[in-house]
């Protein structure tokens, strides 16, 4: 059994804070600051340009990709790290469309993270040859999979409600209809067990700053199924994905397998924080994480509904159909969340009315859940949120 | 006058090292480790998700973009930071092509950094509608500008030889022929005075890990001329470039001006190092940098040619026609460079036979130039490079 009291000590969470926003930005791993400091002072400072070889910088995107791969059911050599999630969505979608050249339809849903939809429409605007992006409600996705679909592009866990798609079943149906799949694991990696190989997913992408705790704007990752790894054409064909980057040929030749999904020079300082954050996962069972996270979220739902009837559950009640977050709706959700944050219960808000609370057992236990509900009940039942200060919108909500 | 003894003290260069590879990776600014450490421990660790507002993370790509803008002749609000240089090349080229829709030819040269050419061919592969990438010798660029060219895409300073294009004259000729320009400033920003506004450049991109000293894989930047900033369509339309990212609309609407060239969540840890590195430039005159760098490079050329006649100068002899680096050819350049590095004179090598030495007066003075030449002369004149060890190729050359 995973010892979650031990994992909690590996995070530097300020005293008194109940941090329920790991679904947006994971907290600081204790080891990250030293690790980044060493990378800067010892590797960059002392090795200078030699760091690319002697400190292994150049091979990190693959090495760290393999560490993430173990958390998402991806074989060694099928995941690579770099860029941002939006860039990785672009790469995956562009390659997937070309692997299904006779079709012109992308299917997605309104529960996909908007940036994925924006990236798709930007790509289609460039291609300008009759492609269409069809966006249906999450519950209508399965029925909308037809033989006109080139690519099914979904986020597995809905960023607003936490609703969980059945990756395996939808991928199977997509394949039966002749479509490829692009799965966004932003709210899955580190939150729930993922089995990309078992589900026969074609492409997957994700970020590392949520449940993987690698810091604000940490690098993203991309997975390509082995069957496509050597044939997918990289749309963003940067030198790091070249077969021989340091030959400096004038012509592009895609590197072997997943290497071709690398683009530019890898972000070494940021990867040091990511590498430190991944150390925490070495002794953890994702099945234990899943069980504990469902139990915490169930407890939270039960207690909130009992004490704050004016909040409406927006997440599936069945824990198996949720990711690792719970959302409640309230017309004044924004101001309520500001009042909670002012009282050190930190969740976040998504327009128009959704309050999100993430439950990761790595640093949240029953005591934190009950403490959070006490504060929520106090804020709700005494209308402590109803002030001009809490209604004032910040740049980032 | 810029006091270059003072700037040298702002870098943590190991004792005894003569670092002539700032054209590949700038050395560590003394202030960077503390600055990044503070960002991690104080901002991420204590503010957690609130850092996006209270620590100003969300607006950093523009704020730091403006700091870089001052070094390259770009007005406030025309430069934004993020991603890698290859990604920024893709954005600039994709937008520029659409702004010149009736033409199908991109003109570049063999002195462009290969990744720029790779990115162009990847983009053209996606567009798949008759675009052509024409790559000529650097000295033939001017004559090749014709009324069939949609976009002239060049790196201002040749990464191998240091040869400097005349940005102003070539842009003028391109415009007269009805073409747009994309300038890569990888070897210009922080090395030589650049006047994007004065040259009427349309798009420009660059990296910050060379002469701007922001660390391995540090974020890149993009400039869009004000006349196109509100009309350029972003091909990589991520949520950070959306008009209202936190409205989470399903449809993309490009943000105002340069904001639309943002893509994904900004890399905050890496930007802390960049911000610290840019502090060094606050008291520096780029004209002083230019004069001092030419004087150092001229001294180096004179002394190397006098003492090592078997080396062939590959850079322009006229300092005004060079960037801030000097290259010499030798058939055994790779092994010679390894021997130099083993003796703490650090330059680098570019296939097939080019040894590069960068001269930035921020941390290099006459004493370092003469010390480097002593070592080069010893290695050459005593064939100290001629060992199996030095011939053994590393992953990164």
From TrEMBL, chains A, B:
GO CC field: cytoplasm
Organism superkingdom: Bacteria
Example GO BP: L-tryptophan catabolic process to kynurenine
Catalytic activity: L-kynurenine + H2O = anthranilate + L-alanine + H(+); 3-hydroxy-L-kynurenine + H2O = 3-hydroxyanthranilate + L-alanine + H(+)
Pfam families linked to this entry: KYNU_C
UniProt organism field: Bradyrhizobium icense
Protein name: Kynureninase
Function according to Swiss-Prot or TrEMBL: Catalyzes the cleavage of L-kynurenine (L-Kyn) and L-3-hydroxykynurenine (L-3OHKyn) into anthranilic acid (AA) and 3-hydroxyanthranilic acid (3-OHAA), respectively.
GO molecular function: kynureninase activity; pyridoxal phosphate binding
Keyword Repeat: no
Chain residues that bind pyridoxal 5'-phosphate: 85-86, 113-116, 155, 184, 187, 209, 239, 265
Family as reported in the entry's similarity comment: Belongs to the kynureninase family.
